[in-house]
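B., you asked whether I could sanity-check this one before it goes into the benchmark set. Here's the sequence:
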Amino acid sequence: MTTENKSGSPEGESIYLAIGYLRRPHGVRGEIIMDLHTDFPDRIKAGRSVYVGEKYEVSTIESARVHGNGMLIKLRGFDTPETAGRFRNQWMYVKSSEVPELPEGKFYKHELIGLTVMTDDGGKLGLLNEVLETGANDVYVVRTDEGKEILLPAIPDVVHEINMEDRVMTVHLLDGLVDEPRS
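And here's what the prediction gave me:
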């Protein structure tokens, strides 16, 4: 695990992964509405340690339940709407070192950041700088050595291989894909 400061985490600490955005208190028992920002909502359950806000304040989930497209979260020790309200409009995180390993060939998005992106004909595009979540599929933002950004759809027709050992992603450029790099 690298300790590079790539996500705003303090230097030398684990990378924090956002799992949800806390909106506002709901009801009278100290629950708060959370928008989900994880592919694994089933892992958000009672007893799980989480980190809230820019200072990554540690807390423990007392209860979690589905609510519409999100969840209702109750943090231990915050039993009223007023006390839970202090977490309003803040991100909830877990440490990347605390998430389970994925099956072989599957990767968390944060693990892809920093990969060297090569074309299938051997040319270097640049480094994978960011993963954008869109409705249809993710989009990889590749920064060239010249500082330009190339947007690549994260689809099988484009992404041919991810070699985590060598930290290289091999892609096939579809016609017209890099005509308009972002600056």
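One thing to flag: The longest helix spans residues 81-84. Otherwise nothing jumped out at me.
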